[in-house]
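> call design_seq(struct)
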């Protein structure tokens, strides 16, 4: 077993699709990407709100983006490499607590309250039926 101290309460943890890194969502509105072998911090993502609830975060299948729920009514999508916000997607719910990525496509699902939402790109012709 290996231990890595995060400094604040961890609310979400997952592997990247290639299994080389660990993504950890922590209270205070921060997501951290760490090397699985060394524990070295590779990147931090901030801008979303997370002060009260457990919120999921995931690296999307392309390994180019990180998506996270928030307590301000938006889903945040960050660039994995330079940590800037590439999309702030308005959500029908105020708190987006659940989020998971599709294992093979650049899509994700969120859940809030009693509803589940599928998020796809505007040019995703498979879902749009074009």
């Amino acid at each position: 077993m290996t231990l890595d101290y995060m400094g604040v309460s961890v609310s979400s943890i997952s592997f990247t699709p290639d299994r080389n890194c660990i993504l950890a969502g922590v209270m205070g509105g921060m997501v951290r990407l760490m090397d699985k072998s060394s524990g070295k911090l590779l990147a931090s993502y901030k801008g979303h709100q997370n002060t009260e609830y457990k919120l999921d975060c995931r690296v999307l299948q392309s390994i180019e983006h990180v998506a996270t729920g928030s307590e301000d009514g938006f889903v945040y999508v960050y660039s994995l490499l330079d940590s800037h916000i590439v999309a702030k997607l308005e959500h029908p719910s105020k708190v987006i607590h659940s989020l998971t990525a599709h294992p093979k496509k650049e899509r994700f699902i969120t859940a809030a309250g009693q509803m589940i939402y599928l998020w796809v790109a505007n040019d995703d012709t498979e879902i749009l039926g074009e």
